[in-house]
């Protein structure tokens, strides 16, 4: 192998890692969002920030998702029927999760008086790591401690979740209206929430 070719291989590897880290990361082979099983590795799985939306007529049944947050408080999206709900999968060591955390915190604060609720889902961290993350980024909303993957399984039953982070937006009836795989662009997410708020007003 020539010296030039040997120099190119490490560079190609570095570029590949950078591309994979940019969009979304995985705590396991299935993006850390599988319906069961142990974490297999600590590699990254790409989510490119792609957004999918569902028209009102194409939305499935309401999501039934509940669990206990990292303070021991019960959380159930059913209690928020009539409001827009934003679900976000994350874990503390995930670089894209850290990148989007300030935008999610700002969204929760800015839309609180409009009845918009945010709920995190974390199936990787213990309470110490999760709460340290929440303090660092001043997260004002709860996250389900989903070590047994029950919450993510309920979500997966309705909409595919293939990367961490993934953000899912529920309409006022609790149905999946939009999904973002990978880092959520702040303006895109706010536009989706605004559309659903307007949708409810029109009804």
Explain how this protein is built:
There is one protein chain. With about 200 residues, this protein is an alpha/beta fold. The protein has a single domain (about 5-200), classed as Glutaredoxin (3-Layer(aba) Sandwich), CATH 3.40.30.10. The chain is built from five helices and eight strands; from the N terminus they run αββββαβαβαββα. The protein has helices spanning about 5-25, 95-110, 125-135, 150-155, 185-200, and strands at about 50-55, 65-70, 75, 85-90, 115-120, 145, 165-170, 175-180. It has a six-stranded mixed β-sheet, with helices on one face. Strands 2-3 form a two-stranded antiparallel sheet. The chain is globular, with a radius of gyration of 18 Å. The model is unreliable at about 1-20 and about 25-45 (pLDDT under 50).
- Taken from the alpha-carbon principal axes, the silhouette is globular
Question: What is the succession of H and E elements?
Answer: HEEEEHEHEHEEH
CATH class: Alpha Beta
Mean pLDDT: 82
CATH superfamily, please?
Glutaredoxin
Number of structural units classed as domains? 1
């Amino acid at each position: 192998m020539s010296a030039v070719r040997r120099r190119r291989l490490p560079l190609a590897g570095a570029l590949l890692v950078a591309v994979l880290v940019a969009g979304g990361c995985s705590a396991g082979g299935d993006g850390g969002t599988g319906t069961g099983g142990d974490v297999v590795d600590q590699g990254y799985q790409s989510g490119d920030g792609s957004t999918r939306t569902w028209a009102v007529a194409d939305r499935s049944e309401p999501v039934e998702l509940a669990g206990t947050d990292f303070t021991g408080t019960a959380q159930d999206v059913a209690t928020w029927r009539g409001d827009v709900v934003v679900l976000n999968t994350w874990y503390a060591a995930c670089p894209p999760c850290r990148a989007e955390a300030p935008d999610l915190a700002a969204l929760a604060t800015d839309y609180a008086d409009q009845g918009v609720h945010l709920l995190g889902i974390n199936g990787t961290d213990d309470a110490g790591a999760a709460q340290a993350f929440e303090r660092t980024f001043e997260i004002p909303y709860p996250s389900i401690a989903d070590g047994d993957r029950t919450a993510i399984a309920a979500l997966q039953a309705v909409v595919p979740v293939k990367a961490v982070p993934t953000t899912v937006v529920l309409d006022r009836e609790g149905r999946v209206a939009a999904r973002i795989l990978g880092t959520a662009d702040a303006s895109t997410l706010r536009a989706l929430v605004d559309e659903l708020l307007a949708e409810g007003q029109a009804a």
